[in-house]
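Good day; I would like, with your permission, to put a structural problem before you. What I wish to show you is a protein chain and, alongside it, a tokenised description of its three-dimensional fold. I would ask you to consider whether the tokens describe a fold that such a sequence might reasonably adopt. You will find the record immediately after this paragraph:
***
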Amino acid sequence: MSSSVVTVELSNGASDLDAVLALQRANLRTQISPDDGARNGFVTVEHTREILAQMHAHGPSLVARRDGRLVGYALTMTLACRPLLPALEPMFARFDSLSYAGRALSTCQFYVMGQICIAHSERGRGVFDALYQAHRECFGDRYELLVTEISANNGRSLRAHQRVGFHELTRYRDAIDDWVVVALALR
């Protein structure tokens, strides 16, 4: 285990895409055992390089590096990205009907955590927290909230999101899974 410092920064775009996709593939729910997913978490959506590039063009994502190697990412997905991933339409439709602190979510300045993933070797070492802290620092002046949904079957992710300050807005089921929609105040 390396003792070097993890750095978190805005993605440099195209040159990070392959590393993001490799880390994503290694943690896809469909590529790991159910036991590993239950114990260590998983990601659900598989992006293409083209979609990641388009998401980055709308709002750069944040990446974590140790010794120059990408060890985590937190994908920024502005509302302009809604048409890019039709599989996420049920999530966006759900957002249209939600409220936060007594206000319709649609009246809040928010963006979506498109996905967060940490390399197995880095879990429990503060990378998750650092990525979300960087989101606050980078986007808190433009956005009030960061909203995402997490599989209700991903206990590790649910606990980690709660730990860094996310609050549950609702739960629902679609054709794929049971979901928990959560929001983080950025200011």
The longest strand covers residues 69-77. The chain has a mean pLDDT of 93. The chain has one domain: 6-185.
